[in-house]
Amino acid sequence: MDYIRAILDARVYDVAVQTPIDRMVRLSGRLGRDVLLKREDLQPVFSFKIRGAYNRIARLGEGERRAGVICASAGNHAQGVALSATRLGVASVIVMPVTTPPIKIDAVRHFGGEVVLHGDAFDDAYAFARTLGAERGLTFIHPYDDPDVIAGQGTIAVEILQQHAGPIDAVFVPIGGGGLAAGIASYVKYLRPEVKVIGVEPSDAASMKAAIEAGERVILDRVGLFADGVAVRQAGEETFRICRALLDEVVTADTDEICAAVKDVFEDTRILAEPAGALSLAGLKTYAARGRGEGALIAINSGANMNFDRLRHVAERAEIGEAREILLAVTIPETRGSYRRFVELIGGRTITEFNYRAIAGAEAHVFVGLKLSDAKREKAELVARMDERGYRVLDISADETAKLHIRYMVGGRTPGLTDEVVLRCEFPERPGALLEFLDAVGSDWSITLFHYRNHGADYGRVLVGLQVPQDQRTKFQDRLSALGYPYEDETDNPAYGLFLRSS
């Protein structure tokens, strides 16, 4: 009841707006369910974060207002705090990682916030903001683990139940730290307990799901950064308490499913949701695929602060996320006419990618992408036909290294190369990051492979190969551990073995 009163009494509409619920006509038709989208992308900062930030700052005491506020954020919360504080005549300091894209830094300054850049990641910025706030006597505005912030986010639920009085099967809410889910679940479960409230997290950043399953908050070793707005290693203390009690379920979505949801939002509304904003819709589609049900399915589009440079990556992965594209590695005989026969076998299907290079020997490896109307059914039929022809087929549609790097490097073999180790790494997207990597590993090992593409994020994805003899592997691993960059060893990756490893 305390949260119900706090939500109904929340001060958000001095700066926030009541956002509409749009019916997603195309997606509703495909799923055979009534799919609705709550448009928090239409807020002044293009995100729901303005609600909680304003409600928290509006409730400061007079002395706290004179002193000012501080927060740590690389995106939407930063803009919400900056605009809210400016509207209320309060000075704000926003600590952001040095890897934050300039567009987000400029937005915070535009809304009146003082930007302080510190650290490579959110955890660094958060710790520094806490220290700086204590030194200056500033009030820290938490992005999610605060009752006033939770109550502000809960006003979305009030609007949903006012705007859609008909039957609702479930409301899908993206989860980072859990403030939005806690606020919405508190109100919906009080007023309409029959309505399911389902949290959605990225499969590589599911801190709330892990906490609920463990019965206590856990700290993830690492989180994926594609949906950076919800990339949180540990759920909040208060938000976990509420979500554990009130959420019906937490589902996850991978990068390809999120990209497909971004495309769905664009096709129905012509707006570009950020990955975290489309996350709840990705979870909704997974839920809808379980079978038919009654009532509307409502997803929260939590934000639209999309970096333009990231669109290329989203477009590449959306078809796979929709199960409309497959990637195959096919081994065919290296004989005259085999290339043509393989293309004939593909038939009239749309080829999205085709990488082939003749090599010495009896076999050739082909990297092929195909757009299919029904990937699950057609893939089985196509692979069966290839098996009949004696082709060896490896489905690499879910292979992250193949999708990010190897598809652009097919044919790059080095004859006679031995002891190659291949790593998939994440580098901070700032000058000097590569040099730091080279300094850390030293000059003991030669770099044999390097591939990088900018994906419009605050980190870079890199595939790197080094020639490391077996008796030096322990020393090499120690160097990597000391550096601290996230990485995966891909030396045994089958796609790498087919297309890049020296024979």
What does this structure look like?
There is one protein chain. The protein has 503 residues and is an alpha/beta fold. Among the domains are: 12-44 and 168-319, Rossmann fold, CATH 3.40.50; 323-398, Alpha-Beta Plaits (2-Layer Sandwich), CATH 3.30.70; 418-499, Biosynthetic Threonine Deaminase, Domain 3 (Biosynthetic Threonine Deaminase, domain 3, 3-Layer(aba) Sandwich), CATH 3.40.1020.10. Helix content is 41%, strand content 21%. The chain contains 20 helices and 18 strands. The strands form four sheets. Strands 1-2-10-7-8-9 form a six-stranded mixed β-sheet, with helices on both faces. It has a four-stranded parallel β-sheet with strand order 5-4-3-6, sandwiched between helices. A four-stranded antiparallel β-sheet has the order 12-13-11-14. Helix 3 packs parallel to helix 5 (76-87) and helix 5 (76-87) packs parallel to helix 6 (102-110). The relative contact order is 0.10.
